[in-house]
Amino acid sequence: MANLRTGVYPGTFDPVTNGHLDIISRCTRVVDRLIVAVAVNVGKAPLFTLEERVAMLEAEAAELKAVKGAIIEVAPFEGLLTEFVGNAGASLILRGLRAVSDFEYEFQMTGMNSQLAPDIETVFLTASGNHQFISSRLVKEICKLGGDITPFVSSGVKMRLTERLGQDGGGGYPQGVG
Ligand code: ADP
Q1: Which CA distances in Å does 27 have to 21, 40, 84, 151?
Q2: 100 Cα to the center of ligand 1, angstroms
Q3: Which of 12, 14, 20 to mutate to test ligand 1, by most ligand atoms within 8 A of the CB atom?
Q4: Ligand 1 within 6 A of CB of 18
Q5: Rounded distance, CA 100 to CA 104, Å?
Q6: Each residue's pLDDT tens digit in the chain (178 positions)?
Q7: Residues marked as catalytic
Q8: Distance between CA 167 and CA 165 in Å, rounded?
Q9: Could you give the C-alpha distances from 45 to 17, 40, 75, 99, in angstroms and in order?
Q10: Measured from the CA of 95, which atom of ligand 1 is nearest?
Q11: Does the beta carbon of 178 lie inside 6 Å of ligand 1?
């Protein structure tokens, strides 16, 4: 894989939305091999386990792969992102930017990562207009309140969310963000 430009798209993906998929699809125009790195992220108290989040992404990535013909891998990760990126033989971190609200956190993280690993560049991509404002947190809230989440997630993810949050009032829904 030495000749392939490899990039890492890290996130919590709790769960993967059409916004994430839009970014993943765009990433394949920037890199030859994309590793979607699913963070354990206990701090965000995810609704779905790491295994569930990885499984949902794998299912979605399999569909995208057929369309794009690019290499998309999904891997769980814990610990320092820069180490994960280095170990994966990657030189790029890819992140999505939504509104200005994302900027400060992303700016700080990029600055810190570039101190930790000066050889790794961070590239920001934006989703198309109708995907730009989708957030996992709001999708979970809408689903919990009985709203239609069809425009925001795949049918597979919608099913998982409805199972977890729908009907029964969403018992056990933690105060996660993302
Ligand atoms: P994290 O906990 O790392 O923010 P998320 O799963 O919330 O994980 O997001 C992963 C990445 O995807 C982040 O760079 C985030 O800004 C980006 N992202 C999420 N939703 C969208 C969207 N609708 N459009 C563009 N980028 C997005």
Answers
A1: 10, 22, 18, 21
A2: 13
A3: 20
A4: no
A5: 8
A6: 557 899 999 999 999 999 999 999 999 999 999 999 999 987 889 999 999 999 999 999 988 866 667 899 999 999 999 999 999 999 999 999 987 878 899 999 999 999 999 999 999 999 998 999 999 999 999 999 999 999 999 999 999 999 999 754 444 444 444 5
A7: 20, 44, 98, 136
A8: 7
A9: 18, 9, 19, 23
A10: 14
A11: yes
Q: How far is the CA of 174 from the centre of ligand 1 (A)?
A: 19
Question: Atom 10, ligand 1: which residue's CA is nearest?
Answer: 11
Question: Comparing C-alpha atoms, which of 22, 97, 31 is closest to residue 60?
Answer: 22
Residue 13 Cα to ligand 1 midpoint, Å, equals 8
